[in-house]
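Supplementary notes for students who missed Thursday's class. We covered one full example, reproduced here. Read the sequence, then the structure, then the short commentary at the end.
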Amino acid sequence: MLAVIRCENQQNGIAGIFSRQKYYLDSVNEGEIKFMILTVKGGKRINWGQAAHILGENGKNVLLEQGLSFPEESGLRLADGTPYKRRMLYRAVEKLLRQSASLKRKIAVLLADENMEFINEAELVLHYGGSLTIASDRGEYCHALPKQSVTTVPFSELKELSDYTLILAPVLTQRFADRMNETARTAVLTADMGRNITIEGMVMTDFYSPLPEYYAAFLPAGIDQSEFAAALYTFCGAKSLGELVPNQCAIYLNGNKVAARADF
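Structure (token representation):
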């Protein structure tokens, strides 16, 4: 089950050392929405080992109040919202392709898909009449797509990336980022920036649509809305969130986040 950890009334200095820390465990159980909330009150800093002990197995899917972090050895693990992030990327790409089709604009898309995992995204581009190139060293696994509509190229043979209207890299790897550094200035859309990725140019990620009123009512204080939406979609079965059309995203420029929530 999903677990949320937040804190209240933490104290600094000597007062925090002698302040008794208390842990309060509550649960939310409303239809498909089921999660636990561990509120830590008082004290100078959270005893993460104690928090992990209280949550038990529920500590494997954790959302943290903004500003909190736990050490790796605590036994806690952050909730992985990858399925939601990839779904929002899909919906964002669909939005762009639909707009281009309505304006009768030709769009050339490069899909960076090292392991041929994103056939649905490829089919989406073709559905809206886009020109599609897939960068992958496993192009032979592209049997589900019409050969006359798709060009496949190995990563090592990627050349002028600026020729593409849109670059879609659902999982942004350093290997692909290195190609961007050399040749392209076209915006890249991704669901996952990866850790310590160095890339030049513009990257758009963390696509998001504000929570509908029903789900927003369950948002715990201090929890990021986007992370909460991802957790509800992934762990609580709130699949209707995956049907929303994103209208915001984060923007990185040359590796630096320049906007956490830009209109999209």
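Commentary. Residues 82-102 form the longest helix (21 residues). Residues 1-79+214-242 form one domain. If anything here is unclear, bring it to office hours.
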